[in-house]
Amino acid sequence: MRLRSLRERDLVAAIRREFPAKNKGLVLGIGDDAAVVRSGRNLSVLTTDLLVEDVHFTALLHPPYYLGRKSLNVNLSDIAAMGVKPRFALLGLALRKGLKTEWVKEFFRGLAGAAKEAGVGLVGGDISSAGKIVISVTVLGEAKALITRRGAHPGDLIFLSGRPGDAAAGLRLLRKGFRLGTNAEADSLLRAFLDPVPQIALGRTLARFRAATGLTDTSDGLSVDLFHLCEESRTGAVVEVDQLPLSPALRSFAKDPTRLALHGGEDYGLLFTVDPRKSGLIDGLRKTFECHWIGRMIRGRGIFIVDRRGRRRILEIKGFEHSL
Amino acid sequence: MRLRSLRERDLVAAIRREFPAKNKGLVLGIGDDAAVVRSGRNLSVLTTDLLVEDVHFTALLHPPYYLGRKSLNVNLSDIAAMGVKPRFALLGLALRKGLKTEWVKEFFRGLAGAAKEAGVGLVGGDISSAGKIVISVTVLGEAKALITRRGAHPGDLIFLSGRPGDAAAGLRLLRKGFRLGTNAEADSLLRAFLDPVPQIALGRTLARFRAATGLTDTSDGLSVDLFHLCEESRTGAVVEVDQLPLSPALRSFAKDPTRLALHGGEDYGLLFTVDPRKSGLIDGLRKTFECHWIGRMIRGRGIFIVDRRGRRRILEIKGFEHSL
Predict the structure, then answer these.
(1) Residue to substitute from A3, A6, A19, interface B, most B β-carbons within 10 A
(2) Which residue among A146, A154, A280, A294 is least enclosed by CB atoms within 10 Å?
(3) What are residue A40's phi and psi, to 5 degrees?
(4) Taking the alpha carbons of A239, A241, A243, A244 in that order, is the dihedral positive or negative?
């Protein structure tokens, strides 16, 4: 849901320079899934997302109920990616003139349902009109412990939750005219795109047991998210491409499922690294959470994929533009 | 900067129903200047604003430096209106393709300057592209004490900081082609609109000395903001229209200065109520802060204005549409 173009990366670097991270109480500023500030004895975790119609979503393809859910859930995914419990949300909403009341009601029904599932309170907001629908959601989480993108070490194992590529395949099916209810296999892909589930319980469990060294969510595409994890941890990585947990539905519908899994984005699974001495902990977690081992962190700054025959090549770092 | 149409008020009521304020830790939900949640021993105060180009501002009239300042400052005004110290800000920004780098740099220079003045850290954000510029700012404040819109009582004195109507007059001059630097009197009106100053120190002082019973900012127009204060406090009010602190510039440039002062909006002063037994405290404050007595709260739900001859009439509750 967040397009991170090269220009954005330049801008973020410029903003970082303009706003030095020396503010009292600031624990972690721009550059992770969420910002962390000290609040008394606790840590507060903050994240915000801006969704603009016809840039980040299209009202034609995204039913308002699912759009309401997703608007909150993509932010909850950022909080999950810190291993933290989300507590409160704020909504900024600009509505087009002529939008039906039914659309607005369904949007709020979706948002309220997602908030209830996560135990999050919608505590404030700002509503206005605009030429396009604009949705801005901010979430506040609270934590005693959390996991950043900065803690991975060479040798750590890389795990992934969820099924990479499914959401990107779902978007492609939507564009081709598929809608929910056509067939079960297509539905699983459509749902992955329309209604991603933030991995809050997994993230919190990883933080509580200090099971992971580095953690992020797969919102921008596995290659881009792994790149961010490596950048912030100052490591490289090797992904065993044949270990990618491609879903049967993705294999049925996608021409190049591996490409979608690596670069598709919008998955909102968790990508995390584990000290090999703690891999027993992960074996335990895997009884409750679907996680797959996909590779390991390495020294240096290279990011590679390796296939079953041991052929290694540089992993291209790119997300697809999801603009519609 | 926030258009609150009747439709928005309906929506807010609908949202309140959809999101019952029973979340653990929620102190004050939708309906005040900002939301308040418990965070350990402290209170956290949260507010968010969404600004859409050609709805809430126009790039042609609003130089990017001042737009950057105002984007943050209108949120800081909401925090000031709780009597609280702002701490951290998040920015969601969507930029038009073709927008000059210079524009973006000036916007951030303004935002960074306003953040520095207020001691606020910009800790995170989300940048993307869109057909129109969209700016979403969220601010987190922290407090031990605060003042809501709910505490005013019949008999309390009403005070106002700042010069109501100046900002609305400034916008009208901008539309007529006036620009900063033309003449000093026009400049004071243009600045009131382009670069409002959030009354953080006054708000905090009112909270620290428990000097005010009710507090809000004048962002929507004095009549609308007073209406909100009365609604939340379940009182009525009488405004002495001849006590409104109309600026000499407003009197020079506006055809109907009182109308702009009552309904113009975008002032970002503070409107607060004081127990008459504490009016001595306010006399002290007035040595440091420019505040004016303008009326008193009354029993019942009527809101009136009264002129020097004692003629009383119902105050029309309306803000101008600032859409450009």
Answers:
(1) A19
(2) A280
(3) 65, -130
(4) positive
Contact by Cβ (8 Å): B147, B34? no
| Predicted structure pTM score | 0.89
What's the DSSP call for residue A30? B
Give pLDDT tens digits for A60-69: 999 999 999 9
For A138, the closest of B3, B90, B119 (CB atoms) is: B90
Bridge partners for B92 per DSSP:
B126, B136
Contact A166, A267 (CB under 8 A): yes
Regions of chain B where pLDDT drops below 70: 1-23, 320-324
DSSP conformation class of A287: T
From chain B, the residues in CB contact with A71 under 8 A are none
> What span, in angstroms and rounded, lies between the C-alpha atoms of A285 and A208?
12
Report the first-to-last Cα separation within chain B, whole angstroms: 11
Name the DSSP letter for residue B214: E
How far is A142 from A38, CA to CA, in rounded Å?
A: 10
d(CA B3, CA A297): 51
Residue closest to A141 by CA, chosen among B145, B92, B25, B81 = B25
3-class DSSP state of A250: helix
Kindly report, residue by residue over B239-274, the tens digit of the pLDDT: 999 999 999 999 999 999 999 999 999 999 999 999
Domains of chain A, earliest start first: 6-143 (3.30.1330.10), 157-314 (3.90.650.10)
Closest-CA residue of chain B to A126: B49
Alpha-carbon gap: B18 to the closest alpha carbon of chain A (Å): 7
